[in-house]
Amino acid sequence: MAKARRNKRGPFEYAHKLSMQTVFVLATIFLYAPIVVLIIFSFNDSRRGGNVIWRGFTTDYYVKAANNASLIEAFVNSLAIAVISTIFAVILGAITAIVLWRFRFPLKPGYEGLVALPIVIPEICMGVAIAVFFSSMGLYVSPGTLWPFNLTNIIIAHITFSFPFAAMVIRTRLNNFNREMEEAAKDLGASEFQVFRDILLPHMKPGLIAGGLLAFTLSLDDFVITFFTSGPDTVTFPVKVYSMVRFSVTPEINAASTVLILITLVLTAIAMRFQSFEEEHK
Amino acid sequence: MTDAIISIRNVTKRFGSFTAVEDVTIDIQPGEIFALLGPSGCGKSTLLRMIAGFETPTEGDILIDGKDVTDVAPNRRPVNMVFQSYAVFPHMSVADNVAYGLKMDRLPGAEIKEKVAEALEQVKLTDFAHRMPDQLSGGQRQRVALARALAKRPRVLLLDEPLSALDAKLRDAMRLELVKLQESVGVSFVMVTHDQSEALAMADRVAVLKDGRLMQLADPMTLYKHPSDTFVADFIGRVNFFEVEEFKPGSAEVRVQSLGAVTLPTPVEFAAGEKLVLAVRPEYMRVRPWDGTGVAATLGDVGFQGDSSIVEVTLESGQPVQVLSGIADTPVLLGLEPGAKVGVDVDLGEGRVLRG
Q1: Residues from chain A contacting residue B89 (CB–CB below 8 Å)
Q2: Contact assignment for B149 to A202 by CB distance below 8 Å
Q3: How far apart are CA A194 and CA B249, in angstroms?
Q4: How many beta-carbon contacts under 8 Å exist across A and B?
Q5: B309-336 tens-digit pLDDT
Q6: CA of B160 to nearest chain A CA: how many angstroms apart?
Q7: Which domains are delineated in chain A?
Q8: Which of B146, B177, B158, B101 is nearest to A186 (CA)?
Q9: Is the CA virtual torsion A26, A31, A34, A35 positive or negative?
C-alpha cells in the first residue's frame, strides 16, 4: 500500500509535468537570454561592422573599457553618487523608520503613505519633477565646481528616491523589536541614549545594511532620474552607456555593462543574506 | 508600617476612561515573596509596572525604602525586573548581559567581573558565561534574566509571570528553585501571576486583584481557608456554593438550599437581609453508597487524577456539586456506577459563609 502511494503523484507536484517544465524553461530563456547574450558578446572579437556575429574570444574590450577615460570618469561619478546618497538615504531612512515605528501622531497613516509614494510614482515623473524643481529653485551647480560637489543635484535626487526603500526595510526590521528589551535596559539603568546605542542600534544593524545596499544598487544603476538631473560635466555610468549605445554598439559597452551587472548582483546577494539573517533571528 | 520596603499607597491608574488599578494600598515587607494574583486584565501587571517605573500612577504614591519614587524614572529606581519574555539582549553574551546593568552604574571593571561571576554562580550558569542567548534553552534564558537583575543587588526583584513561558515540568522545578534563590539572596520578590497554584506554592503573602481592586491580601493558607468573598474562594482552588435561604444574625443555625437546616461551627456575623452563600471546598465532602443518611445525590462523571478523583454529583435539589475523593473513596472502587444513588457528607466545620 505504502509503496503504491509513493509512486502516485501528489496534488501539487506540478514539477514533474512536461508542460510545466516547458513553461519554466521558456520563462527562464525569456528572462535571461538577453543578459547572457550581452555577457557573451562582451568577449566577442568583433573589430568592425557591428557586434552581432561571433568572431572569436577576446578580453580586449575589458581592457579598452578600462582605458576609456570618459567611461571610467562616469563610473567613478556613479560610485561617488551611490556612496554619498546611500549614507544620507540610510540616515534619513532610519530616522523616518524610527519615527513611524515609535510615535503616534495625527495623520500618521497619511504621512506613511507620503513616505512610500516615491516608490510607486513613475520614475519619469519623479525625474521631470526633480528637474523642474531644481531649475525653478535656481538649484544648479555651476560648471567647474570641485568634484564631487558638482554631483550635488544628482545626489539629492538619488537620496529622494532611494531613502523610502531604506526606510521600509529598516521599518520591517524594527517591527519585530521586542519592546521589553528596551524596558529591560532602562530597568538596568540605561538612559534613552544608552538604550538606543546599546540595544536598538544593534537590533537595527541588519536592516541598516540591507537598506543601505538596496539604496546603493538603486543609485548605481539609475538612469531616468539621473538623466534629468545630470549636466554635460556630470555624466554617470548608465547615462554614459546610453550615449555610447546611441553612437554604436561595441563590445566595450557589453564589457562595461557586464561589470555593472556583476556589482549589482554581488550587492543584492549580500543584501539578501542580511535579510535572511534577520528572519532567522527573530 | 514604616519598615515596609515597598509601600503602595492609595494608587489608582487610569488609561483614558479605563481604570486599570483602583485605590490599591499594599505594603511589601523585606525578604518576603509577594504575589500579585488575578485573572488577566485585573491590573496586576500595571501595578508591577508602576513599581518598576514604567507607568506613573494617576493618583497615590509609591514608596521604596521609605522614599517617594512616584516620579522617579525606571533607570533610577533600586528595583529590577525579570520580564515575561526575559528580554535577554540577543547580541550580547550571557556574561555581557549580566554585566550590562553594572556597566550602566559605571562600576570598575574588576568589580563588574566579580559581581557577574557571583550572579552567574547563583543561577548556576557559570559554564555558560560566553554563550550567546540563541544557544540557550528557555529555562537558561530565564536564569540569565534573573542573574542580570540580581547582579544589580536590587532592594526588590520584580518578576512578571516568571514561569508562564516554561513548559509544565520545568515550571514545577523552577517554582522551588525560585523560592530557594530568594532565600539565599534575601531580596524581596514581587511576582505577578495568573496561576493560583503558583502563587500558593511560592508566595509568603498573596494579593488577589479583580478589576483593578484589591480583593484580599493574606498568606496562602488564610486565602485558601478563609477567602473574603466568593470571587477569591472561586479563584483560589475549587469550591461549591450553596445558597443560604434563611439565617439570623448571631445564630449558627441556617437553612441552606439543597442541604436543608444545618448548624455551622460559628455564628453568622452578617446583617439581616444580606444575600449569603455557604462555600465548601470539594475535599471537605465525601461520596459514599446511599444508606439513608447524608445528602441524597445522583453520581455523575468521575475524573480520575491518579492520587484522587474529581467526582461530579447532582443533589436532589438539582444542584451540581464537585467532590474530591481520595483514592480509597473513589466511587469506582466502591462499586458505584454513574447514575447510582449516593449519600454526600459535608464537613460543615470547613464551610464558610460568604456574601453572595
Answers
A1: 181, 184-185, 198-199
A2: no
A3: 64
A4: 61
A5: 899 999 988 899 999 988 888 877 778 8
A6: 11
A7: 2-61 (no CATH), 64-280 (1.10.3720.10)
A8: B101
A9: negative
For chain B, domains (ranges, CATH) are 6-233 (3.40.50.300), 238-355 (2.40.50.140)
* CA contacts within 13 A on the Cβ side of A163: 21
CA distances from B10 to B21, B57, B60, B78, B92 (A): 10, 10, 5, 21, 40
Phi/psi for B287 (5° steps) reads -105, 135
Using 70 as the pLDDT threshold, list the residues of chain B that sit under it.
1-2
Question: Quick check: B325 and B312 in contact, CB under 8 A?
Answer: no
Please provide residue A150's backbone torsions phi and psi, each rounded to the nearest 5 degrees: -70, -10
Encode B104-113: b = buried (16+ Cβ within 10 Å), e = exposed.
Answer: beebeeeebe
Place of cell 507620503: A114
Output the pTM of the full model: 0.81
Q: Which residue has the cell 547574450?
A: A37
Radius of gyration of the CA atoms of chain A, in A: 24
pLDDT at A14: 67
pLDDT per residue as tens digits for the range A258-274: 988 898 888 888 878 87
Rounded CA-CA distance A238/B291 in Å is: 101
What angle do helix axes A69-102 and A251-280 make, rounded to 10 degrees? 20
Q: How far apart are CA A252 and CA A63, in angstroms?
A: 9
Complex ipTM = 0.84
- Residues of A with CB below 8 A from B45's CB? none
Give dist(CA A269, CA A214) in Å, integer.
10
Mean pLDDT across chain A, nearest whole number? 86
What's the burial of B334, exposed, middle or buried (CB within 10 Å: 0-12/13-18/19+)?
Answer: middle
